[in-house]
Design brief:
241 residues, alpha/beta, Spore Coat Polysaccharide Biosynthesis Protein SpsA, Chain A, seven-stranded mixed β-sheet, 9 helices, 19% strand
């Protein structure tokens, strides 16, 4: 049986121009695919009108939308961990609030989440970004896959549907973008079943990427070594089981 209890979670940072569309599309699609659902949005210290827009959206969706405001940014890893902890349904679907992925495509994620599947992972059919971001993204993706022995096609695709119970066993620590490969590596090594579906990636229409600047990429690459030691060499996440 496909999932019938779903939390759709969107982290939002300066996404005032896109988050209303994400919520509306998610609400429409969830009503079609789930018997029990909620939408959770964490406003992670936005400096634009994201907070005001979300409060207005909450008035339109008082029964299904929960908005959590944070005064200061907690980092991508920090906001994802908070969203997973806030989820109350059996399955968690998440993607970013910048509308580069379409929540309406969650239908194929739900269809793929058959019995025995724990994580449905998206992979981009084609990346819609400026050329330099495509090059950096591909280099980063293949390097991380090789370094950590990841089996999925696209570790950089933040569009996932997963059982909330995964996080009863998998404990995440990252507060930055390193949470992406930390999460996938720990879930994979714990023996959970992962299936993949293709998704459409859209050009960014509003705001700026929080990851694709050279200082942040450099810090992430430096952090890779520490995580490689912990997850691949020492395998501390397996020793604690």
């Amino acid at each position: 049986m496909p999932p019938k209890s779903i939390t759709a979670f969107f982290p939002a940072y300066n996404d005032a121009g896109t988050i209303p569309t994400m919520i509306i599309r998610a609400a429409q699609t969830l009503a079609e695919v789930a018997d029990d659902y909620e939408i959770v949005v964490i406003n992670d210290g936005s400096t634009d009108d994201t907070g005001r827009v979300l409060d207005e959206m909450a008035r339109h969706y008082p029964l299904s939308l929960r908005v959590i405001h944070r005064e200061r940014p907690s980092g991508y890893g920090g906001v994802l961990r908070a969203g997973f902890a806030a989820a109350q349904k059996d399955w968690i679907l998440y993607t970013d609030g910048d509308a580069q992925y379409d929540p309406r495509e969650m239908t194929q994620f739900v269809e793929a989440a058959a019995d025995g599947v724990d994580l449905v992972q998206g992979y981009k059919i084609k990346r819609r970004d400026p050329f330099h971001r495509v090059v950096i993204g591909l280099a980063y993706q293949y390097f991380v896959k090789f370094l950590f022995g990841l089996s999925i096609r696209d570790v950089d695709c933040d569009f996932r549907l997963m059982r909330r119970s995964i996080f009863d066993r998998v404990q995440l620590e990252s507060t930055t973008g390193t949470i992406t490969f930390e999460m996938v590596k720990k879930i994979q090594d714990a023996g959970y079943r992962i299936v993949e579906v293709p998704v459409t990636h859209w050009y960014r229409q509003y705001g700026e990427s929080q990851f694709f600047n050279f200082p942040r990429v450099a810090r992430t690459l430096a952090a890779l070594l520490g995580w490689w030691w912990r997850l691949v060499v020492v395998k501390e996440h397996l020793r604690s089981k």
